[in-house]
Amino acid sequence: MSIFLSDESRRAGNATEICFPQTAGEISALLREDKNTPVTIQGGRTGVTAGAVPESGIAINLSAMNKVLRMPCAADAGSAAGASSESAPTLSGSLTAEVQPGVLLTTLQEQLHPLGLFFPPDPTETTASIGGMVSCNSSGACTYRFGATRHHIRSLEMVLADGDTLSIRRGEYHARAGRFALTTNGGRTIDGTLPRITMPNVKKHTAGYFIRPDMDMIDLFIGSEGTLGIVTQIEIDLLPEPKNLWGAVVFFESEECALSFVQDAPRRPGLRRRTDRHDEDSIGLRCLHRICFGKPRRSGTAMQRPRQHDH
Ligand SMILES: Cc1cc2nc3c(=O)[nH]c(=O)nc-3n(C[C@H](O)[C@H](O)[C@H](O)COP(=O)(O)OP(=O)(O)OC[C@H]3O[C@@H](n4cnc5c(N)ncnc54)[C@H](O)[C@@H]3O)c2cc1C
Q1: Where in the chain are all domains bearing CATH 3.30.465.10?
Q2: d(Cα 174, Cα 238) in Å, to the nearest integer?
Q3: What pTM value is reported for the model?
Q4: Domain 68-240 is of which CATH architecture?
Q5: Which of the listed residues 46, 48, 130 should we mutate to test ligand 1's pocket, taking the one with most ligand atoms within 8 A of CB?
Q6: Which of 120, 167, 183, 269 pairs with 283 at a CA distance of 20 to 30 A?
Q7: How far is ligand 1, taken at its centre, from the CA of residue 288, in Å?
């Protein structure tokens, strides 16, 4: 039992009960039955901020809700896998899967690999659950290229604090000038005004809710770390698995050159789209060469060729 009172933060918690629901209905019944006892939701417990560590009350562990409910059929996957993910850095629009929240990232990737597909978000800890990744809007090793988890979430099913459920699909509910209204599956309308906050203009930040005046309301729940509901089903977007992965060690002349590279790389054609027909290895080499040693930028510092190390 004690392992369920901790996570990767190594903080030790306390709970009167730990339950392992298998359906959203069971979670709903639990929350309806007792509205006063605090609950803490647990996915893979790989979080490092103790979000899955109960302080008291009931720990709801979602490891038994670990079914992959739907995968793309092999024919659809095959035709999409023929296209390179290099040309589709964001949502592919056609290939999706549906999973329960306790499915681990490693399990999902194992099932996608034979289809030539992958789920791009990768918090580098593959025993993270997909529900936990949604709740933390995890990012990681592939985020610079493919975006954080929210960019790959199409719809969510959730159990709310009162036991009612909410199904929300990307594009379905938008806030208008900060006002929003959502209809639960029980027919209740939840309406309100979003707080006015300025989000930091950086790609990676995970503190607080994602809030914009005209936001897609699914984004409020993604990254809310279980404070707004328990995610019980997730429809995810998939991409063709990259055919080649390149590792490179690049020596920059200065910190400024390295930072320019990070800023410029996504806009450089070699990384954005490859349409030539040559083999992938030589394209990769040329692409890397152009990025690292290419023409000087019009506005400022050149990406300079290293003098001593030529890697
Ligand atoms: C070695 C290592 C490297 C890591 N690297 C990264 C990284 O690069 N980027 C990154 O973002 N994170 C990283 N993490 C942190 C962690 O792996 C991720 O945040 C991961 O997504 C957490 O998923 P989980 O299933 O383990 O969630 P948990 O740790 O179980 O829970 C995390 C939070 O989400 C809530 N939650 C979990 N499941 C649900 C659900 N179904 N519904 C509602 N709320 C839920 C929990 O209550 C908790 O608040 C790393 C962790 C480790 C150990």
Answers
A1: 68-240
A2: 24
A3: 0.86
A4: 2-Layer Sandwich (3.30)
A5: 46
A6: 120
A7: 33
